[in-house]
Amino acid sequence: MKERTLVGAFNLNLLANGAPVAAEHVIFAYESPDQTKSWRIKEVQCWLNPNANTGGDTRALLNYCLSTDFLTPPASTSNADIITYSMQYNASDNRGIAWGMMDYQNRDGSAADFRVPSFEFQAIADGRRAINYLILNVIINSESSALPARNNFVNYRVLMEEITVTPSESILHQVRGLAQDVS
Q1: With contact defined as beta carbons under 8 Å apart, do 117 and 47 qualify?
Q2: Spatial CA neighbour of 16 closest among 49, 60, 51
Q3: Rounded to whole angstroms, how far apart are CA atoms 113 and 68?
Q4: How far apart, in Å, do the first and last CA atoms of the chain sit?
Q5: Is 174 helix (H, G, I), strand (E, B) or coil?
Q6: Which domains does the chain have, with CATH numbers?
Q7: Are residues 4 and 160 in contact, defined by beta-carbon separation less than 8 angstroms?
Q8: Mean pLDDT for the chain?
Q9: pLDDT tens-place string over residues 19-49
Q10: Which residues have C-beta within 8 Å of that of residue 32, sequence separation ≥ 6?
Q11: From start to end of the chain, where are the E strands?
Q12: pLDDT digit string (tens) for 73-122?
């Protein structure tokens, strides 16, 4: 089987001023007239840059979800809006296929500030899922009110393998990937 690795980064371009920030980013779009080809997730890693102007000793949390359709992040950074958005990360929502979380300690160094990851949680819910479209959804929470926008780069690595499906399975997975609660 053929494997493909998606590696990249994107800048949230938002100031984490103690309020959570959220965004989504398309990382994969597979289009082919051959309906028998699709992809399945094998591994997912997601992380923030280790060097940052952290504004002091604080904590930061990166929460992410790979989905097969847009989850539409909120326009505001109010806690209520972020909570509503994060409810779409629920495992019962068929659009989500992988979830993860990284906890960081932002350290105020004498010469340069840096981040130290303290724990990572990652789980892939459905390795059997045939996918043709992937969106990386992220939320960053930070205690720091001085974290500049340029320090909000989200890095990712997704390892996928090509699979063969019937045209009917392909259509079923595409419909299921766009539906919120279809078994």
Answers
A1: yes
A2: 60
A3: 36
A4: 27
A5: helix
A6: 3-160 (2.60.120)
A7: yes
A8: 79
A9: 777 888 999 988 777 778 888 888 899 988 7
A10: none
A11: 3-11, 21-29, 37-48, 58-67, 96-107, 114-124, 133-142, 153-164
A12: 887 878 888 888 888 887 777 788 888 898 888 777 777 777 778 877 87
